[in-house]
Design goal:
six-stranded mixed beta sheet, 18 strands, globular
């Protein structure tokens, strides 16, 4: 996205989730509570499987389209918009039939029953309890420092893409790991009125061990972070909650305020 309107989180971010059918009773549709990601089909529980799919989401129609990931002869990922391959799935998630279509597709793909669920835009199926602890709300934004990722890449001798860490926002121009100094402080955009309260560091799980752009590249990144950066442990990135909504654009500058 080049420009996005931020309310309590990014539009549609984790508004839908694939809950395992045998865990469906844990989700209360009228009074939902945070549930651990082990209850869902997601990068934490099925990172290698999901890395086989190239996904595109159209905000204006809440439409999900999936393709099988393909690579050129040098094993470079070819995005869906560069090829004419037929999609595996196209469904509008705002409809009952569309959600059923997605549920059936992924149930077949993973070999167990899953159901695509949503409880509205005010609830976010979260990777983290950070928002709940800080504000009593599941909605958070995930921020990754590109300089930190570059330093980790240099230490490991492997090129890592910041997208591997599934951020909402990538910042640059900071020293590596300086994002941790922002915990307990505010980030304010100098180009708009958007204000974030940085509430916690991001503990990493096995969801980042598979590169979504190259599923054959598997690294135990949580263990490697512990090994090479023991002063930080298995943490990379920070979670923030939106204190003041507004518009964010690519190239905006953030200032840190106490």
């Amino acid at each position: 996205m080049e420009t996005v309107i931020i309310d309590k989180s990014f539009p549609f971010d984790r508004q839908y989730a694939l809950i395992k059918s045998n865990k469906r009773s844990l989700l209360k549709d009228k009074e939902p509570e945070w549930l651990h990601k082990e209850n869902f089909l997601c990068a934490f529980t099925a990172n290698a499987l999901l890395a086989n799919f190239d996904a595109h989401f159209k905000d204006d129609e809440a439409e999900l389209t999936l393709w099988k990931r393909i690579y050129d002869d040098k094993h470079v990922f070819m995005p869906s918009d560069t090829r004419a391959a037929e999609p595996l799935l196209s469904a509008k998630l705002g409809t009952v039939s569309g959600r059923a279509k997605v549920s059936d597709f992924f149930s077949n793909a993973c070999g167990e029953g899953v159901e695509l669920v949503t409880v509205g835009k005010d609830f976010q199926f979260g990777n983290t309890r950070s928002g709940v602890k800080a504000r009593g709300n599941t909605r958070t934004c995930h921020i990754v420092n590109a300089a930190t990722v570059r330093q980790v890449s240099e230490k490991l001798g492997v090129q890592l893409d910041p997208l591997r860490f599934r951020p909402n926002i990538i910042v640059d121009g900071l020293e590596p790991w300086a994002e941790f100094d922002a915990v307990g402080k505010h980030l304010v955009s100098s180009e708009s009125d958007v204000l974030f309260d940085v509430v916690s560091r991001t503990v990493r799980c096995d969801g980042i061990s598979v590169d979504p752009l190259d599923p054959k590249t598997i690294l135990d990144l949580p263990s490697l972070l512990n090994q090479h950066f023991p002063e930080h442990g298995p943490y990379l990135g920070v979670y923030a909650v939106v204190d003041q909504p507004g518009i964010l654009s690519t190239g905006d500058t953030f200032n840190i305020k106490c």
